[in-house]
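Below is our example:

___
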Amino acid sequence: MPLHTETLRTARLDLLPLRVEHAEEMAAVLADPELHTFTGGEPDTPESLRSRYERLVAGSPDPAVLWCNWVLRLREAAEDGGYGDDGGRLVGTVQATVGADTAEVAWVVGTRRQGRGFAGEAARALVARLGEEPGVRTVVAHVHPDHRASAAVAAAAGLTPTGILHEGEVRWQRAVRP
């Protein structure tokens, strides 16, 4: 199955291939302006997010580049799972842009569901899966130097900071094969 159409599973999450129909729920998940503190911009409306998702689902215009995008759905919790009303809801996204021998990854979890380890869990699953992808040798993420939570996610996924700055962000990376 092609990577970008594959559902990935973790202990608590299903990483579902992005669909345009996810836009409305994801607009609510990503509505907090605080999510843009380190990246700039402002929350998308459901309509603008739908338009963006249409472009992402259509794929990269460059045939040498693969866009892989997933939404994170918290699986229905067991009665004693402690997730309250979150079971079955979308909580964030992960993505990978795969080209040549490098995959660039990113993640975001809605403010209400941060601090529960969802981003790290999803990032670990994504990096592990990218390590199985033929041709991918290195996984890269760019993290704002002041964004400690995102740096913790990168570290949880096995990436290490390189000290290289790209557009004001630190390049983190991990070799997944020699």
